[in-house]
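Hi support team,

I submitted a single chain yesterday and got back a structure, but I'm not sure I'm reading the token output correctly. Could someone confirm the output below corresponds to the sequence I sent? I've pasted both exactly as they appear in my results page.

Thanks,
R.
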Amino acid sequence: MTEPVSAESFADHDLDAHGQPVRDGADEVREWEYDVESRSLRCCPPGWRLLGLEPREAPDLASLFQVVHPEDLVRVRRSIARVLDPGRDEPLHVEFRALHPEGRTVWVELKGEASFAPGPAGPRPVRLRGTLADVTERRREEEHQRFLADASGALGASLEPESALHSLVRLATAQLADYAVVYVCDEDGQIHRSAGGHADPGAMPRLETLLALEPIPVQSGQIVARVIRSGEPLYFADVTESVLRAATFDAEHLEVFRALRPRSMVIVPLRARGTVQGALSVVTVDGGKPRIDAQALGTVQELAIRAALALDNARLYRAEQLARREAEEANRAKANFLAVMSHELRTPLTAIMAFAELLQMGIPEAIPPAALSHVNRIDHAARHLLRLIEEILTFSRIEAAREEIRLAETELREIAREALEFVQPMAGKKGLSVECLTPDLPVLAYTDGAKVRQVLVNLLFNAVKFTPDGGIRLVVEPREEHVLLHVCDTGIGIAPEMLGKIFEPFWQAQDPATREVGGTGLGLTISQRIARLLSADLSVESTIGEGTTFTLQLPLGGANGSGSAPPASG
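Hi R., thanks for writing in. Yes, this is the structure output for that exact sequence:
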């Protein structure tokens, strides 16, 4: 059982909850003791002064409860009751607000341990000893940090500048001031009151009158303009008549500002990325919140830093969204133009091909062999031009997100052979060998067969164009969950530094080597984007002077799955 200490001990020095003298921070931690049987409460003189009470000979707990904030009283009573309960065996630790007679609120931390004595019905409490400490500064700092953390969350919750401004006003009027106004400077050198709020809804009409006044010229002598120009805050512990006149720029402004009854005011710049974008003004009024002090000034400044960053992020996000929309509109306009022009070009081209075919058939009459040779060249050139137009049309549909995918069970061996047959005449003219290696068993996939064929044809045409001698090989290699379609050539190859560019639109058309063999430069771009539409992946491996291999990795599906036999010559 803890022994009591004498009244002289309380007067001479302070002890901690374990009866040891308090040395470090003795001006903050004070000893107290409560005798349960006599109901007397003793405390050292500094402890009484902390609570705002006069030292008494033998006061009771009621003296303590009288100064406890009403909202904390039940919690303090329950904490003391629990520590005096023999069945709980727990120390006392509670923090509460004490209402000081001077009108200020003090946060007090109360700690203690109970002593018990044997009794007929079991242990009974006889004494409660402990310490009390002034933790007002710690609690204010905790509230300060919590406020700033909540402020950061609220300010960052929206990426709309207007929402960020109104969040800033709500935060300022909730804790720091009676009303707040956010000023934003535009590119024309005018300062606008962009947002404002008042803790008293009844005062909002007067504040709205202030917000509706004309913009402030940034080069004027008005104090908000001075803050924005200098980037330095202005603090007025008392808003005097001279301050009122400095804060206004005409008689109407002065009358409105005076009607709001400002008591203290601070104006801080909103700075982000080295630029002052505006200012935050927070004001307390007569009969409202406490006068802005040094700590509140620091809080306002930190709030302004967070608000400026949130506002800048919101503006950057809006600018990025606007730029993205403009780019999307430009892409749509480009795609629509390409589609319209391609259709317009295809119409006369179809007529050219039809008349060439009639001439080849001898209609209306047979033409000499020399003339027929020229007609054949016309037909070949027209078909080549039609393919280029079809590439542009496909590209424009993909760009405009209009390319449709029609999924069905597809036999990939047949698709591979059809694609290879399509380029065989072109390869034969160059003297290139062509082969297709497929497994013996069917390879089924739930996909768009026409799109797969289009990708393979693009890759095969590309291989033929860039292969001066040797051959082209198409390999169908089924795996457990996907199939690999390899298009291999023995052509000129691609430099390593160019592998990352070959899928860019029109890249080949911009490269001198590509221009020698012709093409739009869209074939690989279209192939990659179609592959993505099919949930497939298109990759490339190449060695200069040895050749290139494009691999389409396509997901498998269908009733029969895929074959597992190794590829065989087809």
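A quick pointer for reading it: The longest strand covers residues 105-117. Let us know if anything else looks off.

Best,
Support desk
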